[in-house]
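Hi support team,

I've been running sequence recovery on a batch of backbones for a student project. Most finish fine, but this one hangs at about 90% for roughly twenty minutes before it completes. I'm not sure whether the input is malformed or the queue is just slow. I've pasted the structure tokens below so you can try to reproduce it. Let me know if you need the job ID as well.

Thanks,
M.K.
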């Protein structure tokens, strides 16, 4: 995790979470009429998953009610932290991939993606999280531009954004299919970055906008990447029992 010294004004809502080097990312859209029923089922489902080998922790987040950013994004996210991708291949987990109740059919739409964290040691560790998350997906379709993108993104953009007060840290991920040299599936993204924030309003502060401007994408790189930014707020979390 990329971090900077924590501001002493960090709110009480900031917490710590055990994390691993692999993230199961599930974006979900649910019909309004069954949202409460789905949330109840989902949280029981998460609790059961966290008893399985390789599952470490999970968070659920809803899209912030603030101004909507351009681009499609799910209403909610479920983010599982895993010890490795092998957690999804165990005989205990495989039957649970199709365990959603029949009465949710056609009323819940979701997209599963698997990411590996970049530039981190292996094994379980802990991160500081905030009540809000800036969720960024980036696509760099041309492989020959990916190294150039990563160099700029890590050393210029992320560093600039994290200099803004209220930004607590960031984690960067690469889709496992890209890492393995496989083509991306429909709706998948090359990279995903999660910025932890002390609240959803951090993005609209002049200091944040100024920091982002200092880290703006150079003109020669901009045509080769597509980025989507959205803000989410946490409403549920759990860790392995």
């Amino acid at each position: 995790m990329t971090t900077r010294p924590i501001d002493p004004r960090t709110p009480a809502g900031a917490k710590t979470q055990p994390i691993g080097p692999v993230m199961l990312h599930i974006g979900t859209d649910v019909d309004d009429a069954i949202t409460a029923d789905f949330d109840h089922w989902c949280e029981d489902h998460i609790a059961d998953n966290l008893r399985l080998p390789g599952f470490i922790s999970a968070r659920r987040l809803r899209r912030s009610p603030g101004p909507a950013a351009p681009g499609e994004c799910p209403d909610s996210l479920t983010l599982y932290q895993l010890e490795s991708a092998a957690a999804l291949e165990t005989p205990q987990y495989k039957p649970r991939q199709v365990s959603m109740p029949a009465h949710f059919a056609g009323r819940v739409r979701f997209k599963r993606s698997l990411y590996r964290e970049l530039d981190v040691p292996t094994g379980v560790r802990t991160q500081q999280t905030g009540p809000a998350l800036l969720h960024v997906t980036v696509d760099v379709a041309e492989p020959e531009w990916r190294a150039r993108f990563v160099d700029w993104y890590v050393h210029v953009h992320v560093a600039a954004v994290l200099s803004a007060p209220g930004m607590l840290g960031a984690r960067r991920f690469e889709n496992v299919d890209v890492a393995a040299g496989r083509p991306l599936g429909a709706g998948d993204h090359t990279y995903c970055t999660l910025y932890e924030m002390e609240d959803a309003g951090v993005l609209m502060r002049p200091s944040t906008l100024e920091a982002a401007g200092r880290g703006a994408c150079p003109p020669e790189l901009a045509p080769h990447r597509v980025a989507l930014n959205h803000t989410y707020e946490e409403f549920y979390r759990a860790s392995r029992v």
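--
Follow-up from support: It reproduced on our side and the slowdown came from queue contention, not your input. The mean pLDDT is 90. No action needed from you.
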